[in-house]
Design goal:
Elements (H helix, E strand, L loop, with lengths): L16 H26 L2 E12 L5 E11 L2
Length: 74
């Protein structure tokens, strides 16, 4: 589901409950988005996601903000 492990390993820090909840939320929302994209494709649309910007929290963390490019199939 994600590339990080919640357990602390030697020389690392475990993920906080907030971080774990955030990872779960992103995963759930991506599953919903993928379901919606499949429905749009089945309805005759092509869907492509583009990074519209990169969000920075000011503490070194960042996330890609996405926008859809949707085209009606001929």
């Amino acid at each position: 589901m994600y590339d990080m492990t919640p357990e602390a390993h030697e020389g690392t820090t475990a993920l906080s409950d907030r971080q774990m909840a955030s990872i779960e939320s992103v995963a759930e929302q991506l599953a919903r988005l993928n379901e919606t994209i499949r429905a749009a494709v089945d309805a005759g649309l092509s869907v492509e996601l583009h990074r519209s910007e990169r969000y920075h929290c000011g503490g070194g963390c960042w996330g890609d903000m996405m926008k859809p490019v949707i085209v009606k199939c001929v």
